[in-house]
From TrEMBL:
Residues 14-164 form the GtrA/DPMS transmembrane domain. The chain crosses the membrane at residues 12-37, 57-75, 96-115, 141-158. It is found in: Membrane. This is GtrA/DPMS transmembrane domain-containing protein. Keywords: Membrane, Transmembrane, Transmembrane helix. GO terms for cellular component: plasma membrane. Belongs to the GtrA family. It is a multi-pass membrane protein. GO terms for biological process: polysaccharide biosynthetic process.
């Protein structure tokens, strides 16, 4: 029992370490996109598609989240397949597709959390602290970090059992 639980903990820790590197990839892409649009004079909070019925707008920053997510998700899949969950030929054909399906679900949840943390409302991060006076006080950067952290357990659980086979002996 102890060995089994230790193995599960090690599995989760490896997933977390790989996810940490994936988070760095994600943040580099996201921050680069935000900085580039700001440099060109475009507001990353600019609505692209408004939805009055849901009181929600698809914003340029949401596209940046999705772009950063896809790049980081491919990185995470490759690293997890190699170092955490193992691989075989059969699963290599469908593994990335499953990983991306789960990733899309996680990305949608992440965008919704990000929107709640960065837009006015009861869950908005405190604007007097996160006033964008420096990179460490940028509400968008912290919204991105927090939303990634909140989505990680869902992402891990679904990928462990569906993408990488879970308890059936495929995990390392």
């Amino acid at each position: 029992m102890l060995i089994r639980n230790t193995s599960k903990l090690a599995n989760f820790l490896r997933f977390g370490i790989i996810g940490g590197f994936g988070t760095i990839v994600n943040l580099v892409v996201f921050i680069s996109c935000v900085k580039f649009t700001q440099w060109t004079g475009i507001d990353p909070s600019m609505p692209l598609i408004s939805n009055a019925f849901l009181n929600y707008s698809l914003r340029l920053e949401h596209v940046f989240i999705a772009t950063a997510f896809v790049i980081a998700n491919i990185f995470n899949y490759t690293m997890n397949r190699r170092f955490n969950f193992g691989s075989n030929a059969r699963r290599n054909k469908t593994g990335l597709a499953k990983f991306m399906i789960i990733g899309i679900l996680a990305c949608i949840i992440q965008i919704l959390i990000f929107a709640k943390l960065t837009r006015p409302g009861p869950l908005q991060l405190n604007p007097s602290i996160f006033d964008s006076s420096s990179g460490l006080r940028n509400i968008k950067y912290w919204g991105q970090v927090i939303s990634i952290a909140l989505v990680m357990p869902i992402n891990f659980t679904l990928n462990k059992f569906w993408t990488f086979g879970g308890e059936n002996g495929y995990t390392k």
